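We close this part of the discussion by returning to an individual protein. Part of our work consisted of pairing the sequence of a single chain with a tokenised description of its backbone. What the numbers capture is local backbone geometry rather than side-chain detail. The amino acid sequence and the backbone structure tokens for this protein are reproduced below.
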Amino acid sequence: MARRFIFAIFCVLLLSGNASAGWYHVENYEGTIGSQPVHVSLQTYDSFGSGITVEGSYFYDAKQSPIAVYGKLNGTALVLCEISGKKEFDRILVMGSKTPVDTTGCPFSLDMAEGGATGTWSKGTDTYPVTLKKVASLDDTGDTKIDGAIEIPFWAETAADRFAGVYTNTDSGTCMAKMQVIKKSSGKVVQAITFKDDDCNAGMLMTPIYMNVQKWVEGGRDIISVNFRGGGGAGDSEDYVFNRATGKYRLKK
């Protein structure tokens, strides 16, 4: 199922003319929503499905659970909506809505600046100030640039873990050097998975960057799938399964 969704997105990008050598323009932020510390990562596009120009992932430091967001940037004004469930995730972020996406009433209203953002998060009668500071960025839409330490909070998660990709420049290009497994209960990295990837393709499939790691279930076990560009069609993947005996993920045979 996950691989079919990825292939669908890949085909949409080809048909829309957005497929190009450079795809990722990502900025990472640290800050607060109200008094709660958060980490925010946003990928911007010229245009992506139904007028969406921004997709992203953020988490409260205390919970460590990634929340998928999407929205529209108009000048410096950014409105972001939160994904509320799997059906909405599939409809808007995976398959793409066939009608314009309405961002009216979405919780984030931000004013973006070079070094960060300020604004509010509102839902119902609750309103909290938002303050974000830019801490890192990745841009391969032209000459590849990485500023700071880029960690991508993937949308995939399990009940116990979230996953973050550490991206870096190599002699072969820009790619994910390792995938960190982060225990939600502690916020600590409990495993770092590296790849046999001389051509530097890990985490670079032409999807939203946050979808380069996916989770699915087989035989009651969580499977974590890492995407690689190349290989024709929708690229390749490596699957990892959690080993209860060792408490680690291992490459699925």
Observations:
- The longest strand covers residues 126-139.
- The helical segments are 2-16, 86-94.
- Confidence is low (pLDDT under 50) at residues 1-20.
- The chain is about 10% helix and 50% strand.
